[in-house]
Amino acid sequence: MKPALKYLLVFALAAAAWSAGYFMGNGRGGEKGGGQSAPGAADGTGANRPGAGGNGVKFLTSDASATANDPGMTTGDRRGRVLSSLLAAMQQPNDLRKFRSLFSAVEKIGPEDIQVALDLAKKRTGNEWGGLTSMLVARWAEFEPEAATKFALTMKGQNRWERDFALSSAAMEWAHKDAAAAKAWVLALPTGKEQQVAIAGVASGMVQADAGAALAWVKSLPSEMRSPDVYRQIFQDWGGRDPLLASQQALALPMGDGRQQAITAVASRWAEKNPQAALDWLQQVPEIGTRNRAIATVLGRWAETEPDAAMGAATAMPAGESRTQAFSNIVMQAAQKDQDQALQLIAKIPDGQARTEAVQQVANQLAWQNPKAAAELAATLPAGSNRDDVIRNAVRNWARESPEDALTFIEKNLPAGDVQRQAKTDAVSAWVQSSPRTALDWMLKSPDMKSEDYGRAISGWAAQDPQGALAWAKNQPDGTQKQAFLAGAISGLANSDPVQAAEQFGTLAPGDAQKGAAGRIASVWARQDPDAAAKWAAQIADPSAREAALPPVVTAMAQSDVARAAAWLEKLPAGGERDAAVTAYANTVTQRDPEGAAAWAATVGDENKRENAVRGVYQNWKRNDETAANLWLANSPALSDDAKKRITGK
Q1: Stretch 509-529: mean pLDDT, rounded?
Q2: In what helix (H) or strand (E) does residue 214 lie, and over which residues does it extend?
Q3: pLDDT at residue 51, as a whole number
Q4: What are the angstrom distances between the C-alpha of 489 and each of 315, 429, 430, 431, 592?
Q5: Helix 576-589 to helix 543-560 angle, to the nearest 10 degrees?
Q6: What is the Cα–Cα distance from 630 to 198, expressed in whole angstroms?
Q7: Do the Cβ atoms of 182 and 174 come closer than 8 Å?
Q8: pLDDT of the residue at 548
Q9: Which of 74, 131, 436, 525 lies at 20 to 30 Å from 565 by C-alpha?
Q10: What is the SS3 assignment for 169?
Q11: What are phi and psi of 433, to 5 degrees?
Q12: Is the whole model's pTM more than 0.85, yes or no?
């Protein structure tokens, strides 16, 4: 297994478990997919495109992977098989199988397939495709690390974790093959978060050849170029190769987040081979908090081979956050291999918060493998929001296999009201993947469903069969339900064909349903053709729908061309639509140009919205340069003294 893809798969699985369905389009995590220029695509600039003269990198056109996979297969046949595998993987209803299948499909992609695979990922813009582009960039880096690394910087529209992982993994491959070139390139980047991520990747690639040299290089850099994560990456690899030397070097680091990351990373890797030796070493760590957190990590590792011994060591720890985390780590590891053993370990944890958190951990883990068991375990938790969230996570997966049983469980174990209704909507949204008409008929018979639930449920059907979903929605009796279904179907259609969705937009009456569809169409279309999306959004008759459509348009513009987006904003007339668009623009450009973003935010017409827009810019700005942010705010004539006090909290 290639290192970049191996680590990316772990990242994808962890992120999916953490966000409880994030990649499956449950509304969390923001928009995914699209926005960046694929290799060889005509983006109008020629930059960041292999073979286009922008970065001087020629895109590979060899048939190396065809030879490796099947010497008798033509490039076209093999490429068709590769893309079919990607599509089949993404259509898997089970999340765990989806990621396993996706990893297998991406691993078979050759250098000449990267462009078409990225094009596919760009076109499939629904949330269920989150993470695919990053996996493809990591694979590309194995062939052309320099080109993949530079491309990762252009990625737009992905969740920040995805972009960072793509950049880090590509930079790692580049440094592994040509450390001097990778270092020279990364040091020339503008100082900021992206440079820190790239430096961590380069350092990780250098470790494979010379861990000492990698550490010396990182320590020689100015502090603003280093993130704590760079030490984790260095010592995670070093600790697996030579834990004794790595442990000595970790303890020699000065106090700070980098030292904490290094110590925990070394302890974690050392524990894979000798957990007791790792625990003995940690007694030398003078910082109590760092030592206890690392001990909890080691005990989780120990539980992979000797869970009872690890549990005994955790029980002997003093009560507190570190012991609770140790219990959770141990139970989590056991749940991955033996669910019954995990339950037995839970029974050994004293009653209280420690046991509650361990049950939550196990239930969330089982939600991927055995959602019915996960839901039943979660139902034993004390009443509260965490219990409800864990149950929702489990039944979301359970409904893909046995929707009616999952819905019965929801009605029995969740209190009537919004929590139960939302869980039902999760289950029906999963049900429509296999039997859309039956699922929606059930929803229509449930008295507590609301209009927004109808739209959300049918959008899953529309993502697979937009014409079928749209036809069904049009055949419903006139009324708010029909409007909700139509809006959901049109929003789902927008994922694959925003132009056709825009043509259907006129069938919606003004209201919340139309407003939601306007935002979705504009969001997808603007990532493909911002000029066309802007023209369409501007002619929407209803002001509230127009106000929903303009922000994603300006966001897409600003991600690729800040000046162009600003020029477009200049032409908007004053009013709520302009205020919404300006706020979106300011949020988008804050990291690159905080002063410019603040100046734009100050032009928002509505006083309350102006204060909120400036607050968003200010809070992001002060993380990097608090002095400059405070100076600008103090001198801004656009805000009252009271507003400035509310923004600063002083």
Answers
A1: 91
A2: helix 211-220
A3: 30
A4: 53, 13, 15, 16, 37
A5: 20
A6: 30
A7: yes
A8: 94
A9: 131
A10: helix
A11: -65, -30
A12: no
387-398 tens-digit pLDDT = 888 998 899 889
Sign for the CA dihedral angle at 472, 478, 484, 486 comes to positive
The closest of 38, 1, 2 to 172, measured between CA atoms, is 2
Tokens (6 digits) for 434: 């296999």
| Average pLDDT for the chain | 82
DSSP 548-596: HHHHHHHHHHHHH-HHHHHHHHHTSPSSHHHHHHHHHHHHHHTTT-HHH
Name the region of 50 (left: φ>0; alpha: ψ -120 to 50; beta: rest): beta
Q: Distance (Å, rounded) from C-alpha 264 to C-alpha 268?
A: 6
- Rounded Cα distance, 243 and 258, in Å: 17
pLDDT, residue 22, reads: 33
DSSP one-letter code for 509: P
Question: What pLDDT score was predicted for residue 452?
Answer: 78
**What does the alpha-carbon distance between residue 77 and residue 469 come to, in Å, rounded to a whole number?**
33
Terminal CA-to-CA distance of the chain, rounded, Å?
Answer: 54
Contact 407, 442 (CB under 8 A): yes
In whole angstroms, give the CA distance from residue 449 to residue 250.
56
Run of H or E residues at 445: helix 436-445
| In contact, 519 and 580? CB cutoff 8 Å | no
- List the structure tokens of 460: 């899953």
pLDDT digits (tens, 9 = 90+) for 89-106: 776 655 666 777 778 888
- Rounded to the nearest 5°, which phi and psi values hold at 143? -100, -50
Rounded Cα–Cα distance for residues 215 and 229 (Å): 13
Q: Which amino acid is at 434?
A: S
The first and second tokens of residue 496, run together, are 């694959």
Q: Could you give the percent of the chain with pLDDT greater than 90?
A: 39
Q: What is d(CA 174, CA 4) in angstroms, rounded to the nearest whole number? A: 11
pLDDT tens across 208-218, in order? 889 899 999 99
Q: How many C-beta atoms lie closer than 10 Å to residue 483's C-beta?
A: 24
The single residue listed with the structure tokens 């000449």 is: 112
Q: Would you call 634 exposed, middle or buried from its count of C-beta atoms within 10 A (0-12, 13-18, 19+)?
A: exposed
Cα–Cα distances (Å) from 462 to 87, 90, 149, in that order, read: 16, 16, 35
Which position has the token pair 């700005």? Answer: 621
The answer to whether 297 touches 264, Cβ cutoff 8 Å, is yes
Which is more confidently placed, 442 or 11?
Answer: 442
CB proximity list for 558: less than 8 A, separation 6 or greater: 565, 566, 585, 588, 589
Residue 498 CA to its chain's centroid (Å): 23
Residue 580 tokens read as: 């919404």
Greatest pairwise CA separation for the chain in angstroms: 75
Of 192, 294, 179, 181, which Cα lies nearest the Cα of 235? 294
How far apart, in whole angstroms, are the C-alpha atoms of residue 523 and residue 516?
11
pLDDT tens-place string over residues 336-349: 777 788 888 888 88
Residue where the block lists tokens 């046991």: 355
Annotate 316-344 with b (16+ C-beta within 10 A) or e (fewer).
ebeeeebbbbbbbbbbbbbbeeebeebbe
Q: CA-to-CA distance for 576 and 311, rounded, in angstroms?
A: 58
DSSP 13-32: HHHHHHHTSGGGTSS-S---
